[in-house]
Amino acid sequence: MPSKEKIFESLLQLMSLELIRPVDLEIDWSDQETIHAFVNQAERSGVASWCFYRLLQNPENKSAHPELMARLKQRYLAVLIDNQQKLKLFREIEKILASHDIPVALLKGMAMAFTVYPEEALRPMGDLDILVPEHLVLKARDVLLSAGCQSVHIPMSEWHEQHNAHIRAMRLPPHKYLIEIHSKLYATGSRLQPAQMAWEQSVVHRSTAFGNFPVLDYSLMVYHLASHLYYGYMMGGVRLGWLVDIAMVFEKAGDVAVLMEALLKINPGFNKELLITVGWATRLMRVEKRQQLEKWESSFTDFPEIKDFLEQQDAEVRHRWIVLKNLWRTPGINNKVKGAFYQLFPSREYMAHYYGVNGGKGLWKAYLKRLGEGRMG
Question: Which Pfam family is an annotated match for this chain, by its short name (predicted)?
Answer without folding.
Answer: NTP_transf_5
